[in-house]
Amino acid sequence: MEHEALDDDRLMAIAEQVFGSRLDLAMQYHESLSTIGVERGLIGPREVPRLWERHLLNCAVVGELVGEGERVVDVGSGAGLPGIPLAIARPDLHVTLVEPLLRRTVYLAEFIDSHDIDVLVVRGRAEQPGVKKEAGGADVVTSRAVAPLEKLAKWSMPLVHEHGRMLALKGSSAEDEIERDRDAVTRIGAGNLELVRCGVDILPTPTIVVRAERIPKRHSRR
Questions:
Q1: Is the backbone of residue 116 left (phi > 0), alpha (psi -120 to 50) or beta?
Q2: Whole-angstrom distance, CA of residue 75 vs CA of residue 54
């Protein structure tokens, strides 16, 4: 069932609740995505009217699943989603954005440098040894609209420490993906696979996240 679109006043009230004293920074990111992001082909023009609800707020509320001061690696970050909204809403986090395409990493670095955000950009693919060396050992790996769960687990689990988590932002087919890929994801070393919803009391459409934990090999069943 479709939710009624939020008016601007309601959107800003929710944004202030989510981003707090850093709302102005979130607004600057929104402005950047709607202009430079569109010009460089990082965001589709049709997404501009729903940037707040579908992108910035949708991503930022995932902070509900991240502990104080944790290290977060965002794989396939694209235009910085969900990593930058998370970093804005939660300045206590240590966020690294992993993205293979040069034009995207240039945009990310430009925005981060010009707005003095404490975020690291690593150009490369999650499975590359250099990326694992630079970004590995994280508490949490996030992703959004990057790949099916089995591939995400292959890329994400090596980047988190034992008992670290994969948080994959998904759409309405998340339950079907869990059912389809559960066995394959378990073989990769991910356990406690579950679907959780973030922003339930804030957003008209909560964010759907598939969460999994990296299980120590010595505890894996044979």
A1: left
A2: 19
List Cβ neighbours of 79 (8 Å cut-off, separation of 6 or more). 33, 37, 42, 43, 104, 107, 108
- What single DSSP character describes residue 131? H
Residue 137 near residue 71, CB atoms below 8 Å: yes
Q: How many residues does the chain have?
A: 222
pLDDT the model gives residue 2: 44
What distances in angstroms separate CA 171 from CA 13, 136, 174, one per listed residue? 25, 27, 6
> pTM of the entire structure?
0.92
Q: Are the C-beta atoms of 126 and 159 separated by less than 8 Å?
A: yes
pLDDT at 216: 87
Q: Which residues of the chain have pLDDT under 50?
A: 1-3, 219-222
Per DSSP, what are the bridge partners of residue 170? 208
Closest CA to 153 of 139, 143, 138: 143
* Pairwise CA distance, residues 135 & 160, whole Å: 9
Across the strands, what pairs with 190?
214
